[in-house]
Specification:
alpha+beta, Aminopeptidase, 2 domains
Length: 286
């Protein structure tokens, strides 16, 4: 059996070239790591300090991953990913002095990496969330009354308040990488949207992660007093339409699989299930 030969890249464009068309063409399955690489390529913020990993064995790609400071390791779908390949990416991370807080990827891959990492580090892991990945190429549900509005700098305080509530609702805490500075950058970058009804902002969503032909919808949040009125459904429908009309080939989003209501709503809009993902967190890490 061929041992993997691995490389760590500093140049995101060279990394994307090395990944090759088989991985790049799996744009829906790899929407998260590819969007991270795309953002690194544009040279914004701390993403310029990213860890980009590729290993090869027997003439094929054995493993690929990306990780930005303070964040989880994100695994690509498509490489061979044998047991020794999870060991190789662990070696590469440790060689770079990285003590990762967790991992996210297709469920079987995330769990396999977690087992190797925890064995090597003498730590333990737990499931933070089981996620469903969805992709959309055509919107099948018209939005209800209201309109889609892109957030402006004057909305920064409101967005920061709602962003904190979003993370606390989802995870029961604020991740350390979520900061007011980062929140303001999202607004300034034009990636935050509100659904407005009768002049009031009633729901929000983001679209700040993209590749050349796909855009990811995230940060979908409606305050409790505005829920069960279809606002988030209308917002995601209208935002997805706008993204497709702007030239993206498809939209993607992740859902919490424990919430059947939101999963059902996204299917009605036109999102199709593309696979299960798991986020694992480690008991030690940064």
């Amino acid at each position: 059996m061929t041992s993997p030969s691995w490389r760590v890249f500093n140049d995101p464009d060279a990394f994307l070239v090395a990944l090759g068309s088989p991985l790049l063409e799996r744009e829906v399955e790899n929407c998260l790591p590819l969007a991270i690489c795309w953002k690194i390529s544009r040279g914004t913020g701390q993403e310029r300090e990213a860890f980009m990993y590729l290993s090869e064995a027997g003439g094929g790609i054995a493993g690929a991953a990306v990780r930005t400071p303070g964040r989880n390791v994100v695994l690509f779908s498509g490489p061979i990913w044998r047991d020794e390949d999870f060991g190789a990416v662990t070696d590469a991370l440790l060689a770079e002095g990285i003590d990762a807080p967790g991992v996210i990827g297709p469920s079987a891959l995330a769990r396999a990496f977690s087992d190797v990492w925890c064995y090597r580090r003498g730590t333990a892991a737990s499931v933070r969330m089981e996620l469903g990945l969805y992709g959309l190429v055509e919107v099948g549900l018209e939005p209800g009354p209201g309109r889609l509005v892109q957030a402006a700098p004057g909305d920064s305080d409101l967005f920061w308040s709602w962003e904190q509530r979003f993370y606390n609702d989802c995870f029961g805490e604020m991740p350390p990488f979520v900061t007011r500075e980062g929140s303001d950058r999202l607004v300034a970058g034009g990636g935050i949207y509100f659904w407005v009804v009768d002049g009031a902002k009633v729901s929000m969503a983001g679209a700040s992660r993209s590749t050349a032909s796909a855009s990811m919808v995230n940060l979908v949040y409606t305050p409790p007093s505005n829920r069960r009125q279809g606002y988030a459904t209308s917002l995601v429908s209208a935002l997805s339409s706008r993204l497709l009309e702007s030239g993206y080939r498809c939209c993607t989003l992740f859902t919490d699989l424990s919430n059947p209501v939101s999963n059902g709503i996204y299917r009605k809009i036109g999102y199709e299930y593309a696979g299960g993902f798991t986020e694992m967190v480690f008991t030690s890490g940064i």
